[in-house]
Amino acid sequence: MNDTLTRTDYNFPGQTAIYHGKVRDVYSIGNDILVMIATDRISAFDVILPHGIPYKGQVLNQITSLFLDATADILPNWKLATPDPVVTVGLRCEPFKVEMIIRGYLTGSAWREYKAGARTLCGIALPDGMRENEKFPKPIVTPTTKAEEGHDENITKAEIIAQGLASPEEYEQLERYTQALFRRGTEIAAQKGLILVDTKYEFGKKDGKIYLIDEIHTPDSSRYFYADGYRERFEKGEEQKQLSKEFVRKWLMDNGFQGQKGQTVPEMTPAYCESVSERYIELYERITGEKFIKSDIRNLSERIKKNIETYLNK
User: Containing H/E element for 57?
Assistant: First the structure.
């Protein structure tokens, strides 16, 4: 675990700002360029866990790069280059302060709310009698606020427009893009024997145009089921075999942690962190159909700095 990347603090030529997110460190270069470093930090329930996960940043960055390229015909995205396995350089956009979550199945937090009696989600009516992991008749878009700190909160289309987070025309376009991206992700996943269950997208604006920003279709932002056996497990009421970060959330809940005040994160042993790393690598190989090549993580911080500076100096 000593070779995990959990914090960066560079000073690049032309750097004007730095932002440390839950997982990514983002460097502003001038007014138009962002350098985004996917660290090995892992968060759950909006809490950054105390240990990094080996190669997690590389997995997230490389999956995102692949899917940004695979969806560039749907809408423009922020990516310019990936000068390092954990780095994406791209255009600085003004982000919409909402996350566009789309769900094809009733699972995760939506199921937990439904099980507790909720029959509307972000203003969308849900029928009675649904079961965990059941497929919706058609995918539903359930946005959340994008909190600077603390928990994101569910929000309705009407509230987004009323609060000025997007104009009516912008929101309709965000929904269209969300549905189109989800269809593409679903098609690609199906080719690899996976079901894209739910995911989230983030968008920004530059020069009056909407761009796809941040990550896409990674195990941090998405949930995948294995297609093989889905129906049998669903009919029997069994847990689905899945590739996502949900198994980390489940491990935390089983050990009495849900990010609430006074709760303590259970011990993350080296063996546990390695097991999480293996799950991330497994998803990479399943969703890309390619063998994951572990980058050389000796002198990791120096490697990243050199590759970014070489790119910026071009």
Answer: helix 56-70
